[in-house]
């Protein structure tokens, strides 16, 4: 897949944490969380991501298209719903012969059937959530491995002579064993 197209409000209602955010916080916060998670997914996978929302639920006076954290966000308008925007995008891709480079994420069965008829692959909200969580897990594992490696081999203190480290610790604590005090074995830190 090179371009993921997401039916925004459909996914907001389908993912339990986002549906809860809509109820307890705000629609805007739920949208922000979805876009943030999709931006992380985009960063990990390298796939383009486009989220389409209906216009009737957005703030009056806002733009019809924007890039948020690398994710393209489009809104329908008074004459074109999010479903129509998605259908038009898929129709244009089918005319160009690029439908296999796209995948639509929605639980709207009519929408899925329509775009599948154009040759566009689809996935449901659970499959999308699993894919996003898999990518997030890969990123977490990569960060954890990097941190573990850093704590063992990349730390400066692991590369300093133990006697020099002892003397530096003495200086840090203000002990009498400063740099001019001979260490065991007669060595001085200079």
Can you walk through the features of this model?
- The longest helix is centred in the C-terminal third of the chain and has 28 residues.
- The protein has a domain of 123 residues: Rossmann fold, CATH 3.40.50.
- It contains seven helices and six strands; from the N terminus they run βαααβββαβαβαα.
- β5, α5 and β6 form a beta-alpha-beta unit.
- It has a six-stranded mixed β-sheet.
- It starts with a strand and ends in a 17-residue tail after the last helix.
- It is of the alpha/beta class and 190 residues long.
- α1 crosses α2 and α2 runs antiparallel to α3.
Topology:
Blueprint: E1 3-7, H1 8-14, H2 16-24, H3 27-45, E2 48-53, E3 65-68, E4 71-75, H4 82-96, E5 102-105, H5 109-117, E6 122-123, H6 125-152, H7 162-173
Parallel strand pairs: 1-2, 1-5, 2-4, 5-6
Antiparallel strand pairs: 3-4
CATH class of one domain: Alpha Beta
Distance between the termini: 60 Å
Mean pLDDT, as a whole number?
82
Radius of gyration: 27 Å
The main pleated sheet reads as:
6 strands, mixed
Strand and helix order: EHHHEEEHEHEHH
The helix content is 40-55%
What order do the strands of the largest sheet run in, or round the barrel if closed?
A: 3-4-2-1-5-6
What is the tally of helical segments? 7
In the CATH hierarchy, the architecture of one domain is 3-Layer(aba) Sandwich
Shape, per Cα inertia axes: elongated
- Contiguous uncertain segments of 5+ residues: none
Determine the CATH topology of one domain.
Answer: Rossmann fold
Broad structural category: alpha/beta
- Sheet-strand content, in percent, reads 5-15%
Number of strands: 6
